[in-house]
Amino acid sequence: MKNIIALALLFILAGCIRSNEIALAPNVIRINTQASGGLSIGKANTEMMKKAAETTINRGYTHFIISDYSYGNETIVSGVNHNTYGTINGTTFGAINNNMYMGNALGTYNSNTYSNVITMPVERSSMTIIMFKQGDKTPPNAWEAKIVLDKGGKM
Predict the structure, then answer these.
(1) Is residue 56 a contact partner of residue 147, using CB atoms and an 8 Å limit?
(2) How far out from the chain centre does Cα 119 lie?
(3) Cα separation values, 19 from 28, 37, 110, 119, Å
(4) pLDDT for 60-83, tens place per residue?
(5) What is the pTM of this model?
């Protein structure tokens, strides 16, 4: 049982970061990122910026701007484990009458169940980016995808 709990805690702490992208137009992409687990919290925005830069370069663009952004965090239940402990008390009594045993048995059962709820932090970020090619009229606040990628998304 201790091994199962330790394994569950390891997965919760390790967590993961996953992203997906949805093309809204040839140069407009929606990126959704979710980070879960103790070691991944705080990394959703960095991962999302990195994904935006990769997407921009992979689609043949050089710059992008963020046109929409949302962020949220929460705690979710990732598991519950239960342990039940109990005792049985019994009493048997009877009598022998003409070589026959006649008896009754009474018993009681008492138990307690203990539950541990395992929670996990989750961080969600979403943004819509508009991408620009070299020579396009690029806004002054646009991110250069190569620089963002070189910094690993840490902007």
Answers:
(1) no
(2) 10
(3) 16, 15, 50, 22
(4) 999 999 999 998 888 877 777 878
(5) 0.64
